[in-house]
Known about the structure:
Rossmann fold; 2 domains
Amino acid sequence: MSTLSTKHLLGIKNITADDIRLIFETADNFKEVINRPIKKVPSLRDTTIANIFFENSTRTRISFELAEKRLSADVVNFSASSSSVKKGETLLDTVNNILAMKVDMVVMRHPAPGAPHFLAQHIDANVVNAGDGTHEHPTQALLDAYSMRGELGDLRGKKVAIFGDILHSRVALSNIFCLNKLGAKVMVCGPPTLLPKHIEKLGVIKSHNVTEALNWCDVANVLRIQLERQDIKYFPSLREYSQYFGINKKLLNSLKKEIVIMHPGPINRGVEMTSDVADSDHSIILQQVENGVAIRMAILYLLANKRN
Ligand code: CP
């Protein structure tokens, strides 16, 4: 059986194209499982997984928990806001106390970039990064690319434009690494203040013109404006952002082709895209969420095999 090249999933930067393809092929099997009347397999029956979230989450947290339960793992959920972190306990002490209860795998979201990497250096359990600050969100990028593959087949040569707040986005960085490894062409589009300087060095094209980017791409992956990470004003107002950089139905109708619309969620409706775009036939936003469970089942299953 093929295996992953890594014991942890910390980011897309350090995994191979073969790892990504193996995750996709494994997810194909689990997608079939979760569409059966009995959606459960015994693969991780003797495995205990802790979901440790130091930041808010709806999709990622529920998706991991469902994936773990579909694989028959024992699951414990930890939320920093209701824990002894509030009394000053360190990250390592917190995790070591959880591991002392014989936990095999840790899924962690943390506001500090590199927090899962730090953890992986100090513990034996497999670590999965569920989003570390503005750094990486590997499972989101994998489910995004898997969803694109579902629509377009092999991604080699396909054109993906990522719109919006690239500067603060872990989803953008992980998507860029993932799509580059799979041979897709990537464009980033947004106001100059929200595109990192020298982003072209990551092998992407840069644009500040939404119409140009929409005409270029096969897939538009539209990102949220992350007001909670913006310490200064990067644009005059949300209204102006929406006017110049928001995606609306009139823009989509003006294109001479059909494109796929994606968004990792949560959506600021009326800011980065209008509701008639988010809910249109072009949108695969809810398919992304559905695919997220199969992708996370595949990742947990393959990482658990690295322990055996
Ligand atoms: N896409 C995503 O990471 O959403 P949550 O913050 O709700 O997990």
